[in-house]
Design a protein that fits this description.
Helices cover 35% and strands 21% of the residues. The protein is of the alpha/beta class.
Length: 344
Amino acid sequence: MSPVVTFGEIMLRLSPPEFLRFSQASHFDIEFGGGESNVAVSLANFGMEVDFITRLPKNDIGDCAKMELRKYGVGVDKIVYGGERLGIYFLETGAISRGSKVVYDRAYSSMASIQPGMIDWEKALKGVSWFHWTGITPAISQSAADTCLEALKVASAKGIIISTDFNYRAKLWNYCDENHRKNIMTTLSSYCDIILCNQEDAAVFFGIHPENSSSTSTRESDILNVIEQLFQKFPHAKKIATTLRTSISAAYNTWSAMLSDGKSIYKTKTYELNPIVDRVGGGDSFMAGLIYGLKTYADDDQKALDFAVAASTLKHSIKGDVNLVSVEEVTKLMEGDASGKVAR
């Protein structure tokens, strides 16, 4: 298969051990993660050739992030250097009825200060079959949004499949108002073939809400109406998917997904996630599974969707941002073996 490229920011993740609150912590566990880098690691674990493009500081912490990517088989030769620091996020893991909490420390990071022209996109995307970005990248700065647009124009001209996960983050998008945010995301999303979104994303980014929703409407009918409106807004899109999470508690969720190609609707079974080890990166693991599934099962959208939701189900059992599972493990769950028995 031709390579996949993902573009975004990788960060240092600092979290109190187990379920401690920030105020209780005497030390933090260290991980690396970020929406697009998480997708890249998942794809590499599935045996796909994948490159991650970002901007890192030329210091020891930037080198550690690069080594972490290389450890999992992600291509790092297209990474550029500059700026002063790696972005950081702090994660407090919730329990029972207390939700998890994220605090960002990524202002003025190397990626936030990236500028158009710093990456030779013609060279970086040569021979590439798929380009993936998320709504987190344009949320961190105007210059990151401009650089993302620069990449999308080149990818589109080359006929590369483009995917996005809208990934709205309420604590980001601090540099612009609502109208500007809507214009940025509308422009960037117009290039996309594959879209992953939920109702909140559609409402916040585009003012799209379920039409004629009432007390008798189902969650499923509402999201299908939103997807229909998204197809109207983005006629270039070929497939739009959504994940459906119900939070019973911080450690007990249900998880399923839907996908539409504008004509047919595909749905998965519902998985029970209980207990959840780490839910951060769940959407990224779904997106990676969907990319792998659509590339591998080209004529079977149902199988591609089933692979994606099974892959992301397994991610919830793994600590850290990234999904460290194999194709064989995902396939086993797809085929109905959720026993978790010891393999020996």
